[in-house]
Amino acid sequence: MADYYGFCLCGNAKFEVQGKVDGSYLCHCRHCQKDTGSAHAANLFSKSARLKWLSGADSVTTFTLSGTCHKISFCKFCGSSMPGIHQDGLLVIPAGCLDTPVTIRPNAHIFTSSKAGWDKDLYDVPEFCRLPE
What we know:
Layout: E1 4-7, E2 14-18, E3 23-27, H1 30-36, E4 41-46, E5 50-55, E6 60-64, E7 71-75, E8 81-82, E9 84-85, E10 91-94, E11 108-110
Parallel strand pairs: 3-11
Antiparallel strand pairs: 1-2, 2-5, 3-4, 4-10, 6-7, 7-8, 9-10
């Protein structure tokens, strides 16, 4: 039985992860900001869990930024971030692609020296359940 299950936005690439997650981090590096188009990436990390593609493995591609160890795996049809194996066998799972509830709280914010200027003191920003009119 899978510990985590997920798929991309178009539903082409489906996967399961079996095993323990070692940690969860919110990464504010400039590379992750570019990857996500947002203030940070939210990723789960595991050195021991196993990734199994249920369908669409051939629709997932991985980009490695030249001169760095930064990688991102994504669906080449819809662009959704997908799990991938990084250096030293580290499995990186974007939290947003999971359909299994993520119950672990992030361990830390990392690379905060690159934190977006607009990603500060957001507790008083209004919240809406859906797109405001």
